[in-house]
Amino acid sequence: MLSNIQRVDRRFDTRGGLMIGLAALGAILAPPGADAQQQTQQTQTQQTPQRPVVPLNQKPVVNTQARPGTNGTNNNVPATQNNALQNLLRGGTNNNTATTNQQRPALNNLGNLLQNKAGTQNTGSQNTGIQNLFNKSGNQNTGNAGLQKANVPVNSTSGPTHSLPSPSHLPPAFANQPTGPAVRSRNFAGPGPAGSKETTNGKGDIVRKAADGSVIDVRSPKNGMLIHHALNGNRRVVVERPDHSRIVAASRGVQYVQHPYSYGGHTYDHRTYYAQGKVFHQLYRPYNYRGTNLDVYATSRYYEPRFYQWATGRQTTPQPFTWGYTSNPPPWFAYYKGYFTLDSSYTTPTLWLTDFLFASSLSSHYENNSPPASDAPPADGSAAITPEVKQAVAREVTLQVKQESTEAQQNAQHQEPDAGASSVVNEISDGQQHTFLADSDLDLVDPSGRRCMISQGDVVQTTGGPQAGTGTATAVILASKGGVECGRATQVEIALTDLQEMQNHMRETIDQGMANTNAAKAVTSTTPEFAAQVPPADADAPHELEQQQQLAALADG
What is the pLDDT of residue 483? Predict the structure, then answer.
């Protein structure tokens, strides 16, 4: 059964299905006036990805000194040029020498994120500060090849008023849909499109059909199965079992099997993901909000307080940074060049983490949906991810890093972080707007009553808190990729469960970015006991997922 499956009992990008060739990153912003001539010598490691954030089954890590970098050689600037905190984060004058990570075979050859092609030499103006410490090991980067950020005032997060194209210019999936009011449902999350109807078939299943008679959803109360036929042709099966286990199987993208896990009197959700022939796992904290079951991300590594202070701090002078793959774009980067561009300098680590989050999400979407279901955005030089959208996402990144800092303090005091306090429900109940990256393909209904979708790397912003009785929240689309995807500024309702998965995806990816910085390697980190004792990934997950797909095919028939 598992002859073609590689086991990966380590935490990495569960939403995207893979952790894409991470660089040996340094993420300390240089202070004003720091040495502008420092350069980083790098060694190609495309076959040996960066070590993960933390193994779920590894004992707590406590290290008060700079640890060796995983993939590169980072020569830090003299300690005399930095203050005490920066010395600690840089590891003083230590040289972090390359070591080889042989424990992540499943991640080999899985992308070029943050990597240059072997032998490539980028030339141009010399890099400073953050540039030297972020650069990917493998090549000598002496240039500033990143794309320049547009000089646009940050005074808006929701974008201009947008209307859908006229029917004559709509893709067939849009043009053939009737318009009208959305149809409320008691059986399915979120409203149905205009003209949709729900009936019960001879087997007792509840079936939701579109106005043209095509099946959208099937719910089987007898076995707890929900089958959804997405606008892009993807079939997603969700099975909830009496023992609180869950199976999510899909015809494309990442799938998982989830079982309860107890430790120290607390219950967690142990989720085993299956993607591209590999299994890997992650823990979540269960939380019930008015009958809606949510799974809230439980990080497997905490840092000391000063690391989080650094991560959410700000520099007065932008620090240049070159992303290694801009001169030799991998397929995903070239495909989405009309949707997303990278900045060439950063004033905060969270702004860099924002670009890292976008890049990781889009790369994962391309890998797991190749070719992507949505149309490639036009390369007209006006990327959909505007500076305003990035700023909105960066604010969310900052909030999530601060939330993890709070949890780290609780963990240091041997307190279990409260799942409700960390949940997306609590976050969006503060009366403020919150911005999230979609973690997967998701069908929605626009104000005209038509079905539209978003996919991984699209951006949504909530405009209010949870809606009583619906299990949803109202949001607006800030950026999407075109085709059958919801247009910019379209107002939609998104299920709280889907918003929670978006928050989880962001926190997981942010953790990856933070963990692979020299700053993180130079401070004390701790694996919480619940994560250190977790069982390995479920080896039977691929079989269970295949079985559910077969059962869903029979139910559809």
Answer: 85
